[in-house]
Amino acid sequence: MAEQPKILIDIREQASGFIELIQRTPNLPFVVETAQLQIGDVQLFEDTVIEIKRISRTSNDVRASLFDGRIHDQAQKMQSFRLKMVIYEIELDAVMFDTYFTEDAFESLNKTLAFQYDIHVYQTQSMQQTIDMLIAIYNKLTHPHKRNPCNPEPRLASLLDQQRYFLSGFPDVGKEKTLTLLKYFKTPISIIKWICTDVALEQTKSGKWTVKGSIEGFGAEFHKKARRVLLETASEVI
Predict the structure, then answer these.
(1) How confident is the prediction for the chain on average, in pLDDT?
(2) Over 60: is that where the pLDDT of 149 sits?
(3) Are 121 and 112 a contacting pair, CB within 8 Å?
(4) Dihedral sign, CA of 182, 185, 186, 190?
(5) Cα–Cα 20 to 30 A to 72, which of 91, 179, 200, 219?
């Protein structure tokens, strides 16, 4: 059996409780080891470093490290790594800005990190979210197609998922009703043939018109809208 990969976390993170929390996190894709790191708080592989900056109700590490110049010194030292990241861990109730540390100053700092130092910036709201972010970053680096917080839609792996995704684009269908259509018609092409065919209408007991022989929830109005999607030329087409 292959040895599980390891990541390094700065031993000084014990004081915050971060190391204990990540070690108690189930199903980690890596083993956590501690060391006194010279650069950053977390090292993934040999070429990736991550610095964690915390803002709580009682302290603001971003403000402090900006004013004493530490953050620029840290950013400079991180240049020896190929991938460089900063995670701002900002508690929900934290007071982020004041007279001296403004939104403009924060935005200017982030632009400097991005353009001058080539550092990627992320933001979380708790230690657990920071751990989830580390796992997502690790998975993205080792499995490029794996879902992460920056990619809200998962990669469509199965044929059924792909068919349902395609059919959800029809008016008033959504993800739930796609399964109803597929169970009745079996394949998307059968659904398209049905939509494109002139069908007979019949009046229900309540006086509404529906497609004769159709299934519940897909009556005349659906048929009309779906036909327009498939058979009419969009005005934007040149």
Answers:
(1) 85
(2) no
(3) no
(4) negative
(5) 91
